[in-house]
Amino acid sequence: MVLIQVALDVVELDRALVIAKEAVAGGADWVEAGTPLIKSEGMNAVRKLKEAFPDKTILADMKTMDAGAIEVEMAAKSGAGVVAVLGRADDIVISESLLAAKKYGVQLMVDLISIDDPAARAEELVRLGVDLINIHVGIDRQMTGKSPLEVLAKLGSSCGAKIAVAGGLKPDTAKEAVLMGADIVIVGSYITNSDHVENAARAVRTAVDGVAAGSKTGTVGKKTQEEEIFEIFNRVSSSNISDAMHRKGAMSGVSTLFPGRKIVGRAVTVRTFGGDWAKPVEAIDMCGKGDVIVIYNGDRNIAMWGGLATKTAVNKKIAGLVVDGAVRDMDEMKKYDLPVFAANVVPNAGDPKGLGEINCEIKCGGQLVNPGDFIVADDSGIVVVPKEKAYEIARRSEEVWNKEKRILDEIERGQSMSSVLELLKWEKQK
Ligand SMILES: O=C([C@H](O)CO)[C@H](O)[C@H](O)COP(=O)(O)O
Fold first, then answer.
1. CA of 138 to the centre of ligand 1 (A)
2. What is the per-residue pLDDT across 213-231, written as a single tens digit (0 to 9) for each?
3. Nearest residue CA, atom 13 of ligand 1?
4. At 332, phi and psi to the nearest 5?
5. Where are the beta strands (DSSP E) in 237-347?
6. Contacts with 176 (C-beta within 8 Å, 6 or more apart), sequence order
7. Is the Cβ atom of 139 under 6 angstroms away from ligand 1?
8. Is 392 near ligand 1, meaning CB less than 6 Å away?
9. Which residue's alpha carbon is nearest to atom 16 within ligand 1?
């Protein structure tokens, strides 16, 4: 039977115990004290998990790089049945860890996270006596689109050890991993950030067991990164994205004119001056469906956009308009289905002189915007996501969104925000 290991990558022990209970109820076999939990709570996390689940295998994800014997001993004596060390550690560390594992009657899992040639390292590890290897793509690399299935595919049919797979797995990709030979699927955030942990664990269990029962399975429908970016940005908020960008990227002094309307799209940039509306209007013709016109006007007291331009933009199915400047004809714009974000609304407009340019780097709301950058704008504000980082930021903002959903769930269950987040414990030490 394929095993499901729930990875408790949370820092609060109380939350970890609650999540573990629900995950086990949903079908998880092994319970992992994740590295963040171990760093936060030490071996107490392993002890408490073993106390709570005496019949379950507890894995301590130590990510050991040195002093393997001591770390394996520590985890084993605390109740771990499996201890995870890093495959990047020296062979002597692996050998010492294996000796300690045998001495204390526990299994050793060796994690191939960030290994350049996983197939070659797996062979070396098997020669050292390792019999459980984790094909793992870490959280940060996942944000750049890397998948453990790609690594698993390179490993070939068998490397002579049992194979665990970890790294952003969900029911469909867990199923793929089993189809590709995985013996253990390790699932963290899909389960731990779910607002219904038991159901999430059960979805993985059903997917995995379905393969064992020979259920038909197609390959995972691979969305393009662009499709994933749009799907995520349409779901998360500008606040989530700002958090994912460590509070970078948010415009100032520009806000929505029509509350409740959201923009997600790629920027067509325009630089113009003092209300000159020639380039802004010409830019409409250069937009594709779903693009966002982003304008720097340099003067917030003379309009360079109004009702006629808005109607033209709607005809072109443009996603929205963001203006570091003024617009006018609110009465007309209200009739059209175009989200508009601006710095000011005035009745006076400039002339079509043709100064400025289209699709150059501009500053809008204090933020640099380049053609093709992603713009996400909602009632909380406007964030600019550089096109070259868009996939990573989308995935990170999805993580933020998932975590907030989980915290909200606990607040809805009656806990206070400060207790859920253990604020007093994590305040900067005085
Ligand atoms: O080991 C892990 C990661 O390095 C954080 O410690 C995770 O447990 C592992 O990646 C599984 O978690 P997800 O990737 O969130 O499924």
1. 6
2. 554 444 445 567 888 999 9
3. 188
4. -75, -45
5. 255-256, 263-271, 292-296, 320-327, 340-345
6. 149, 217, 219, 220
7. yes
8. no
9. 188
Whether pTM > 0.90 for this model: the answer is: no
Write the residue with the smallest CA distance to atom 3 of ligand 1.
138
Residue 9 alpha carbon to ligand 1 centre in Å: 7
Architecture of the domain spanning 229-391: 3-Layer(bba) Sandwich (3.50)
Q: How far apart are CA 190 and CA 387, in angstroms?
A: 26
Please tell me the predicted confidence (pLDDT) of residue 430: 61
Domain 3-212 superfamily per CATH: Aldolase class I (3.20.20.70)
- Which of 114, 186, 191, 403 most suits a substitution to test ligand 1, by most atoms within 8 Å of the C-beta? 186
Burial of 337 (0-12, 13-18, 19+ CB in 10 A): exposed
What residues does each domain of the chain span?
3-212, 229-391
353 pLDDT more than 80: yes
Of ligand 1's listed atoms, the one at least distance from the Cα of 36 is 6
Nearest to 185 by CA among 28, 3, 355: 3
Give, in degrees to the nearest 5, the angle at Cα 74 between 135 and 124: 35
Cβ of residue 167 lying under 6 Å from some atom of ligand 1: yes
- Which one has a higher pLDDT value, 158 or 52? 52
Counting from 1 in the atom list of ligand 1, the atom nearest the Cα of 167 is 14
What's the pLDDT at 214?
52
381 lines ligand 1 (CB under 6 A): no
Tell how far the Cα of 194 is from the centroid of ligand 1, in angstroms: 15
Among 206, 196, 156, 148, residue whose Cα is nearest residue 173 = 148
Digit-coded pLDDT (tens) for 108-153 = 999 999 999 999 999 999 999 898 999 999 988 999 999 999 999 8
> Residue 204: is its pLDDT beyond 60?
yes
Per DSSP, helices labelled H in 53-90 are 68-78
Report the nearest atom of ligand 1 relative to the CA of 7.
8
- 137 Cα nearest atom in ligand 1: 10
**CB 91, CB 62: distance < 8 Å:** no
Structural contact between residues 28 and 53, judged by C-beta atoms closer than 8 angstroms: no
At residue 156, the pLDDT reads 61
Q: Is the dihedral of CA 47, 25, 235, 139 positive or negative?
A: positive
Q: What is the ipTM metric for this complex?
A: 0.97
